[in-house]
Specification:
disordered C terminus; alpha+beta; transport; two-stranded antiparallel sheet; Znf_FYVE_PHD; protein transport; 22% strand
Length: 280
């Protein structure tokens, strides 16, 4: 009878109950909750507090609806796809790093440099252990980090179009730049991100198209059924992941903005580690 595995099962059940029916079940054999805490995630419009849960095989995060009691908009990221990249401190944005995956990449910030080091060390250790056990190679290609809306008053491609309520900002799925509609009216298939062709800027479209022509010329034909992406399609009936699914409606009044800072909790990872009662 292992005290530690019972404590772990209790913690995982607790996380599940905080997400309620809006989340997926998280308890699977062999899964361990390694740590949890609040990080600031750079979203499209502004930085927002998100609750993160690090397991030995996945990273889960969600919006904080009621502090420490209820979360929604659950996102699950398989750790074997993840690559971390430290960010330099820049003005108010300090203690940050990138979480890169094949389908989505974003920046997060911890409250202190110690917490940043702890988070990065724990996540990297989980990734290393996973890859070692599975014998898989780390993923080579990662999605671009989106430039935040606030950093682009004009289109980053034509440098002319000013963004307004009518002239909406769009993001190139290949390079992450903020571009206007006409400068991103082409689609290209990026298989690591979606099975549908996605919005890309004209620069990336040209580069990707040239690369594909080269590939075909080298007698390495791509599946022609995939080449449905040159279609000029604008308008807002756009199902290609246009909205960042992480944006919740701003009417989320009880968003956790408390000034008291909860430090993250990391649990012992090895099987024999006793629970530290002072952590609770």
């Amino acid at each position: 009878f292992d005290l530690n595995s019972e404590a772990n099962a209790r913690r995982i059940a607790m996380v599940e109950s905080c997400f309620g029916s809006s989340g997926q079940p998280l308890g699977v054999p062999g899964r361990v909750l390694v740590g949890e805490g609040v990080l600031t995630k750079m979203c499209r419009k502004k930085p927002k507090a998100r609750q993160f849960f690090l397991f030995n095989d996945i990273l889960v995060y969600g919006n904080i609806v009621i502090n420490k009691k209820k979360y929604n908009k659950q996102h699950i990221i398989p750790l074997e796809e993840v690559k971390l990249e430290s960010l330099e401190d820049d003005g108010q944005f300090r203690n940050g790093w990138l979480i890169r995956t094949a389908s989505k990449s974003f920046a997060v910030y911890a409250a202190t440099s110690t917490e940043k080091q702890e988070w990065m060390a724990h996540i990297n250790k989980c990734i290393e252990d996973l890859l070692r056990k599975s014998g898989k190679k780390a993923v080579e290609v990662h999605a671009a980090v989106w430039v935040p809306d606030s950093e682009a008053a004009v289109c980053m491609h034509c440098k002319k179009t000013q963004f307004t309520v009518l002239n909406r900002r769009h993001h190139c799925r290949k390079c992450g730049a903020v571009v206007c509609g006409p400068c991103s009216n082409k689609r290209f298939l990026l298989p690591s991100q979606s099975s549908k062709p996605l919005r890309v800027c004209l620069n990336c479209y040209d580069t990707l198209s040239r690369a594909r022509v080269q590939q075909n010329n080298m007698g390495n034909p791509t599946d022609n059924s995939l080449i449905k992406d040159g279609k000029e399609r604008s308008g807002s009936g756009d199902s290609s992941g246009e909205e960042d699914s992480d944006e919740e409606d701003e009417a989320n009044r009880s968003q956790h903005e408390s000034s008291a800072h909860d430090e993250p909790t990391f649990y012992g990872m090895s099987e024999g580690v006793q629970e530290d009662p002072s952590k609770h």
